Amino acid sequence: MKQRIRKAVFPVAGLGTRILPATKAIPKEMLPCLDKPLIQHAVDEARAAGIEQFIFVTSKGKTVLEDHFDINQDLNKTLEAKSKHKALQLVKDSELPAGSLFFTRQAVPLGLGHAVWCARHLVGNEPFAVLLPDDIVLSETPCLKQMTDVYGELGGNIVSVMEVPRSQTNKYGILDVGKESQGGVVEIKGLIEKPEPEKAPSCLSIIGRYILQPEIFTHLNTQSAGSGGEIQLTDSMAKLIGTQPFHGFRFKGTRYDCGDRIGFITANLAFALRDEKIAEEVRANVKELLEI
Ligand code: UTP
Q1: Does ligand 1 come within 6 angstroms of the Cβ of 223?
Q2: Per-residue pLDDT, 143
């Protein structure tokens, strides 16, 4: 029987250098996409997939992420006294149940693989999800829910994937692709972190959504630095291939990399154009800008 995915790891210890100076004093994950910080988009997506335990891998200067999911008694009382019911509801929607939020620190940003490894004792011996909050997915069904549905059928390890232009393979983890079955499920023969376009085995890239078996930690325990001098999650995942089922999943939706300026701006526009209260006005403003 497949064990249900109850825990999600959110690595949030990165420096966010691509979007400086915005991230000098506030974490990248607190930047907003429309009216919610990126981290709340990721946590809400995890909640929609039935996740019950939220594990943040944080670092110096990231405590505001912890506060965001707390109950802010003063704010709640003030909003209640002023009968600002809608605003109060928005604030309450960001609260997580007592005892469901866990924190560990990555003292030095040695890479995504190392960040996930820092959560090993909190994850324990069960399958878990990893969500990178700077990757935001606009979709009908939340991306992780699509993945847990596939996991319910296939079990094993699953990563969400999308096609990228060949010129950009050196920015992503790229799949060596085997057979593809119905429903967008792709067999993975190999994984390579940031290959140069001429060496990339495909243009199918991993996005920041993973379902992993706990055996990943066995490999992360001894994983040495790879591409960019960082301890890469991809390198340890590659070692699981052949020992456990490992699938790519072409999720339905659009991924935006909010860790860079173009992705961040585009995500905000895409979400605004989907918001029925503001879409019309935003569309008119964009049109006006394009005409200048
Ligand atoms: P990125 O590759 O976007 O790195 O990490 P970054 O440091 O956040 O940003 P740039 O590249 O300097 O602009 C993807 C995710 O992995 C986390 C980040 O916080 C982000 O959520 N991460 C990365 C860690 O937690 N620790 C690390 O050592 C590296």
Answers
A1: no
A2: 97
